[in-house]
Amino acid sequence: MNLTAWRERLRRIDTLFLRLFLLMWVTLVISHLFAFSVVSPAGTGWVARLPSEGVSALPPLPSLPPVGPLEVGGPRNGGAPPPVPMADLPLRNSQPLPGMPTRSLWLDFALRALLIGVGAAIGARWLSAPMRRLAQASTKLSQGLAEGRDPPALDEGRGTAEVRASAQAFNRMAQALKLQFEQRSLHMAAVSHDLRTPLTRLRLRLEQLPQAAAQAAAQDIRAMDELIDASLAVVREQSTGAPPARMDLGALLQSLVDDRAEQGQAVTLAALPAAAPPMRVLARPASLRRIVENLVDNALRYGRVARLDVRLAGDGADGHVRVTVDDDGPGIAPELIPQVLRPWVRLSSGEGASGSGLGLAIAHDLAQREGGRLLLENRAEGGLRATLVLPAA
């Protein structure tokens, strides 16, 4: 049998049970030899006899010493123990083992417990190494999918049979998730791209409408174009793995509010103190703008107004920027707040407001991708408050 065949045969029997069994047995033997050398009157004499006597020179390997630690093996001062019947003592070379004083018995047990504890600690770290590698790969997987990078791959030929099977399952799952993310992004890009054609036809037909209707329709088409461009920009950032950029969040919010005000929408931004520091964050511009626009649209749809505010909280590594969007709507029942952050969940407002139940879900997903959080809460004076929390840059 060649070397490759032997390795393959060993791989088949290399299991977690076998490793744990061998580790426990080796630890037990080492603890016994160490304790015997320190406690026994013979000391390490058996080591000197190994070359001449071979295995027969090794000390006996009972599971416990001949006399228990709770049994009085002799006077407290370490004197000679009381005699033990010859038939009750284990024999080696037809010679009885000498009794052990109580103090020596306790020392023997302490040394064994200490060495077994050290062996258990080393074994736990050794056997848990595959779980640590799996945890690290899982963390890199979520980050890689969010940034458009290839998922990590675990070594399928390393470790026990259980570890190799887990690595194979993880690698298959990572590739399946990557394919799903790519297909989702492709479908979003395809839908956004295909909308260009009907919009172009609508522009041509505007000439047949009265001037007032044509202007209103042209504004709607321009708004749809902007939505398409924003969607494509978000998909492009995620697919290409574009790194986040350091940007002034206050300037982005002011630009968004100005655009909405020109359209006659009730959107305002609270003034910042003159000495306020710049509200800089590390994020992808298209994704961040999409988050805020979705929150503003939701506030206008259900609360008729959107009042924005941005503040810097904390300092150093704990510093973060908080963007709040308040409205005057009916709010949301506290028990229903977690549901509205899921796709396709739309709560009835009682006023016939239109929506697909995707705005808040998209904002929540993009906020997590940018390392932030989206929080919803009802204001004491009425209405809903959406808070976007992002790490300060």
TrEMBL record:
Ranges annotated as spanning the membrane: 16-39, 109-127
**Where mainly found?**
membrane
Where is this protein found?
Cell inner membrane
Q: Which reaction does it catalyse?
A: ATP + protein L-histidine = ADP + protein N-phospho-L-histidine
- Describe the location of the Histidine kinase domain by residue ranges: 190-393
Q: Name one Pfam family in it.
A: HAMP
Q: Where is the signal peptide?
A: none
Per UniProt, residues of the HAMP domain are: 125-182
Lipid bilayer topology: Multi-pass membrane protein
What Enzyme Commission number does this protein have? 2.7.13.3
Q: One GO molecular-function annotation for this sequence?
A: ATP binding
| Matching InterPro entries | 2C_sensor_his_kinase, HAMP_dom, HATPase_C_sf, HATPase_dom, His_kinase_dom, HisK_dim/P_dom, HisK_dim/P_sf, Sig_transdc_His_kin-like_C
Q: Does the keyword Zinc-finger apply?
A: no
Q: Keywords for this entry?
A: ATP-binding, Cell inner membrane, Cell membrane, Kinase, Membrane, Nucleotide-binding, Phosphoprotein, Transferase, Transmembrane, Transmembrane helix, Two-component regulatory system
Q: Which CDD domains match?
A: HisKA (cd00082)
Q: Is Kinase a UniProt keyword of this protein?
A: yes
This one is known as: histidine kinase
Its lineage reads: Bacteria, Pseudomonadati, Pseudomonadota, Betaproteobacteria, Burkholderiales
